[in-house]
Write a structure and sequence with these properties.
With about 375 residues, this protein is α/β, with parallel strands linked by helices. Among the domains are: about 100 residues, no CATH class; about 90 residues, no CATH class. The protein is built from 18 helices and seven strands. Strands 1, 2, 3, 6 and 7 form a five-stranded mixed β-sheet that branches. Strands 4-5 form a two-stranded antiparallel sheet. A hairpin with a 5-residue loop joins strand 2 and strand 3. Helix 4 packs across helix 6, helix 8 packs antiparallel against helix 9 and helix 12 packs antiparallel against helix 13.
Length: about 375
């Protein structure tokens, strides 16, 4: 097992490794994919992918390149790799701001990448990594130049899990759509205001981004990140119908193809992605689909107040009757255990915060005992 000094197994995962090795000992694998999670300063997952960190001690299995090394066979054969990404993850802290500042201060990464490009000027992977350096520094114009150079030099056919090329396309799309400055959808879409503040025309942004999007989808049809970035753009421009179509496509690809060397950006922002879809469905009047998506998501993330808020807004269609509010309460009882105080507080407070005050007040009277209402100051 090989790890850098700024990597470590997810807590508890180290105990799974001996059993995993025993399980595959007699299978003809050269190595095993594990999950690889980039951890930010707050301990949150910034992006997700896969890496081969466990491999057999065979003479022809070696790392190549000075930086962003890859495990290869010196005999030129394709490595046979098993997939344990769902069971074991490696946490990587090397892209945290303090660590990256240290690397950028002396130009370490750029020097190593340039050395690789001097030896192989057509290396599109290294061009993408150089783009990453400028992207991380905030020099988006120079990053864009390197990313364009990379995609212009790509082979017509890529491996369907080409993580490096997917990242190049994704970050280029983030820059072209104006999302490279924020990286996620804002709760309040800025429409043209933000773009005008940057001296940009939102329509021209998509006009430049669309050919790159089409090239990306053609080259890597199973990659969900491209559709996710497009969804963020259309959401920001208040074009909720198009945003919903793109985010549904992105999530569909994630479900169909998984996240092994794919959908790193989408996987790291999955709660935001589902909330974006739920809100867009609500805004376009697709109430039934909004409810179905919200329920599916809340089964796994029941305390996500944003998703619950949109569910309540979709359910509480005026005019509300007592019978209608009772039906909503019975419906929510299938999602939440109202025998405890926590779920009751969550749902009632969320209803009022979502502008469904009448429903919130009704639920307070129905869910809380008299003693609880007195203790909480509810009339």
């Amino acid at each position: 097992m090989f790890m850098d000094a700024d990597e470590y197994p997810a807590p508890g995962d180290e105990k799974k490794i001996p059993a995993l090795l025993e399980q595959i000992q007699n299978k003809d694998f050269d190595g095993i994919y594990t999950g690889c999670q980039q951890i930010d300063e707050e301990g949150n997952i910034a992006s997700s992918g896969t890496q081969v960190r466990i491999f057999r001690n065979r003479p022809d299995i070696r790392y190549r390149r000075r930086i962003h090394e890859q495990l290869v066979s010196t005999k030129g054969r394709k490595l046979r790799l098993g997939d344990a990404a769902a069971d074991i993850s490696i946490f990587h802290t090397g892209y945290q701001e303090a660590a990256m500042k240290e690397k950028r201060r002396d130009g370490r990464n750029k020097r190593l990448i340039l050395a690789e490009l001097t030896a192989d000027p057509s290396n599109t992977e290294m061009m993408g990594y150089m783009g990453d350096e400028y992207f991380g520094e905030g020099d988006l114009e120079e990053a864009k130049n390197w990313y364009f150079r990379a995609i212009q030099g790509l082979n017509q056919e890529l491996l369907d899990n080409d993580q490096r090329s997917a990242s190049t396309f994704t970050k280029l799309l983030l820059i072209l759509t104006g999302e490279g400055r924020s990286g996620e959808a804002s709760e309040t879409p800025s429409s043209c205001r933000e773009a005008q503040g940057r001296g940009e025309d939102p329509l021209l942004q998509w006009k430049e981004a669309e050919p790159v999007y089409k090239q990306a989808v053609k080259a890597l049809p199973g990659e969900g990140d491209f559709d996710y970035v497009a969804a963020l753009y259309f959401y920001r421009e208040n074009r909720f119908g198009e945003a919903a179509e793109y985010i549904e496509r992105a999530l569909g690809k994630l479900e169909q193809f998984g996240c092994a060397n794919r959908a790193m950006y989408l996987s790291a922002n999955l709660p935001s992605a589902y909330n974006l879809l739920i809100k867009c469905l609500y805004e376009t009047g697709q109430r039934e689909k909004c409810v179905n998506q919200a329920v599916s998501y809340l089964k796994y993330m029941p305390e996500d107040m944003a998703a619950l808020s949109w569910l309540l807004k979709a359910l509480a269609v005026p005019p509300l009757t007592t019978g209608g509010m009772e039906q909503i309460l019975l419906f929510l009882g299938k999602l939440y255990d109202f025998s405890g105080l926590r779920a009751k507080l969550l749902v009632t407070r969320c209803a009022k915060a979502a502008g469904c005050g009448e429903l919130g007040s009704y639920m307070e009277q129905r869910l809380f005992t008299r003693e609880e209402r007195t203790a909480l100051g509810i009339r």
